[in-house]
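Minutes, project check-in
Item: structure for the 291-residue chain
Input as provided by the requester:
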Amino acid sequence: MHDDALRDLVRVRAEHPERIAAAAATRRRRPLLGPTGRLMLIAADHPARGALAVRDRRLAMASRRDLLDRLLVALSRPGVDGVLATAELAEDLLLLGALDGKVVIGSMNRGGVGGTAFEFDDRFTAYDADAIAAANLDGGKLLLRIDPTDRASADTLEASGRAVSTLAARGLMAMIEPFWVRRDSAGTPVNDLSPDAMIRAISIAQGLGTTSAYTWLKVPVVAEMERVMEASTLPALLLGGDPSRAPDETYATWRKALQLPTVLGLVVGRTLLYPPGDDVAAAVDTAVSLL
């Protein structure tokens, strides 16, 4: 993104903020699933929870300009259907003209900031259903972390149920990302990625709200995925997760899981936006080829 483009972006925000809503209202939308029956989304909602690290780069996502550059490359690649983002990123991309004809999912509960005493208080601090509808988006994403030792999980469950219901009432996708959480010997919360824990989390997530008609799941690739995905008939997307493994190993696990009947695509962020060697286009193209 050239300096002039950055200045124009800031100038619109400072002098004509009403143009954001106007651009959103006229954004050309499309069906969630294209002709292939698959969905490929780029996830970019990590910074809003203070999650800026990628592998050994502690502040990899700290530069907003660099992140936008990477997102613009990813969204320009054939086969990429859209983006998952919080409002400030979605609005930057909207003003840059990158979201026309794309699927845009608004990230909703970003309150559980990593490394804090309130990390698992996943309250809704970003989009709500009314704002998603007003911004002409295609749905909302909910993070659902269930810690049986933390009272805050009950509040997250209640708020998530309301969000599912209100999104469905507007005919909008509710994308739920469920995890069962345990605490290690030091008391640090860790997502339990065992098959049984994922089955339990999925079972709870799909029962939220007054209807499941518009509910999708966003799930990690874990062991025994065939058994895990038998827990639900809802459409599911695979999340990329923390890019700690070798890319070839990651792609192999995605390829296998994409053969399951309820798995319809990918929602991947850091693995593709910050790949080894920094070739975003090549990483995205490889992921698209798996579909």
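Outcome recorded: The chain has one domain: 47-289.
No further action items on this chain.
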